[in-house]
Amino acid sequence: MSSDLVVTVLPTLVLIGLTDVFSLYAVYLSISVWRGLVVPVYRSRALWMALLGVFAAIVFTYEGLAIIVPSSPLASVEVREILFAIPLGVILVLINRTANTVIKLDYLRRDVLFWKELRFVFGAVVVLFYILFYSHYVYFLPDAQGFALALYFPALVYGAIVIAKGTTVTRDTTFRSHVKWFGYLLAAFIAGNVIYFLPISLVIDLVFFALTSFCFYKMARFLVPAGRLSASQ
Amino acid sequence: MRLASSGFDSLDQVLGHDGYPDRAAVLAIGPPGIGKEALGYEFINAGLTGNDFCLYATALSVRDVLQDVQAFGIDTTQKVPLWLAGSGGQLRYDPNDLASLSFSIKEALKKNSGRRTRVVIDSLSPLLMLNPPETVYKFLGQLIAEVKNYDAVLFGTLEEGMHQPQVLAAMQQLVDGVIELRFYEEGLRLVPLMRIKKMRGAIPETGYYRFAISRSGMEVSAYVK
Description:
- The structure holds 2 protein chains of 2 kinds.
- Chain A is 79% helix and 1% strand.
- Chain A is an all-alpha fold.
- Chain A has a single domain (2-221), classed as Rhopdopsin 7-helix transmembrane proteins.
- By secondary structure, chain B is of the alpha/beta class.
- In chain B, strand 4, helix 3 and strand 5 (82-87) form a beta-alpha-beta unit.
- The longest helix of chain B is centred in the middle third of the chain and has 15 residues, at 133-147.
- Chains A and B meet through helix 1, helix 2, helix 6 and strand 1 of A and strand 4, helix 3, helix 5, strand 9 and strand 10 of B.
- Strand 1 (226-228) of chain A pairs parallel with strand 9 of chain B.
């Protein structure tokens, strides 16, 4: 058995498998919640959770396969970056939906850090992010990606602060758990991306993606409080 | 026993007597977004259609509620309830001031004592967050006693997950009927189910129902594992 198989291929396949199981089960849970809920704000959040799960499964699987077959033209940095940007934008949309939920959960519908006014700007940032990010590849603009990321991170931080602050208003313990796992997800995702640029095995990167998927599964699990049906019931 | 239609034929059938019992208080408990408010909206809509006197009490603004109501396809242009709302209503709703809230509802009941009355409080959760639970139990107990003096039905909603289990249990003790809407885990599945935990005048049952609320109404069917 070659050392490459043991050190890279097998761990990569195991991690891809774990990542996909967590992501796709979270998609299933999110769609179940989306179908069961009635109020548009909550349904929308569940739907975007499901979409993020689908993109996460695709992107993380692709990343894993690129590690196994690095010589393939499909494993080029450009293709991977193009794919990777999709869930980045979806994360912002999910933050948008979660912040709207924060307002809705407050029985007085109080504003949090001017979210009611700035959410439209936030939406525009998502669109601009995609335009700038992909214009780098379409029009070969060298600085476009930098501008895209310069827009992305302040929006991400602002959205995260709105949600964190808004969560202190609600007493909904399930929602608080959902937000807590969202925070862990962002931390694991950012750590995974930082590690990508470090001179260590890319398999470690996949460990963080598996962690991200696990956090995502926990987020989906806490979309709504759920009881348990016993056999007698 | 006279009955007050819930506004959904499918739910009326499940309730056992084609609606909520008269001179009763009914509580809908469930997580945010599952459809408790929709039950309140349809209950009021059915009352307005039947020319009942209807009062809707909410901490929200009338505009916010109307937006939600319209999302369920309910026409709000013809008849409207008496609004006891955070803003935009005929009467001001302050969840901090239970005495004023109680007075407003009792006065409305008294003024319309000749008519059949429907009162919706959406939701009771802010009251429990801003006041000691014992004060809210007392407020609700007195209000229910008043409702029973008139030809009236009180329908309230309560958020699951925002209160201690003992508070939820105490609130359920106070009322005549409890409808629980919630998600249940069954193996790896997550299914939204409804249960009539209790309803005065109906045979107690332990069954669960699948339900779906949409603009076209509410579908209810017995849940079989």
